Amino acid sequence: PSSLHGKFLSGLASRAFGLNWPIFMVDEAYTSLKCPRCYSHREWVNMRVGYCRQCTLYLHRDLMAAQNTAMLGMRAFHGDPRPEQFTHKWNREAMKAQEAAASKQKA
């Protein structure tokens, strides 16, 4: 691995294997786009801060992603499936529904 991130992950994996700890890879898709409390889609306040209308929660995007990634990792550890709000299929369908609703409003 040539990047600093790659070197860090390689070192972390080597250390974990040496200690016989399990490693779970988590797909980071949608982790900074969903509220960690209710999984609803957040809105941007600015480039780095997200807002959830449902929970009235303001969170930095990195903190939001970290909390969601930790949750997904714990689910993987316990053998639980990934919540559908964090899947590509669910988000594609949600976008189509949102676009259909917007075009109805214009008509």
Structural description of this entry:
This protein has helices spanning 4-18, 61-78, 88-106, and strands at 43-44, 49-52, 57-60. Helices cover 49% and strands 9% of the residues. By secondary structure, it is mainly α. The protein is built from three helices and three strands; from the N terminus they run H-E-E-E-H-H.
Helix content: 40-55%
Please state the overall shape, judged from the principal axes of the Cα atoms: elongated
Which class of secondary structure composition applies to the elements? mainly alpha
The largest sheet, given as strand count, sense and whether it forms a barrel, is: 3 strands, antiparallel
What is the string of helix and strand elements? Answer: HEEEHH
Task: Give a quick rundown of the structure.
The protein has 107 residues and is mostly helical. The protein is built from 3 helices and 3 strands, in the order H-E-E-E-H-H.
Sequence-ordered SSE layout with sheet pairings:
Blueprint: H1 4-18, E1 43-44, E2 49-52, E3 57-60, H2 61-78, H3 88-106
Antiparallel strand pairs: 1-2, 2-3
List keywords for this structure.
107 residues; elongated; three-stranded antiparallel sheet; mainly alpha; 3 helices
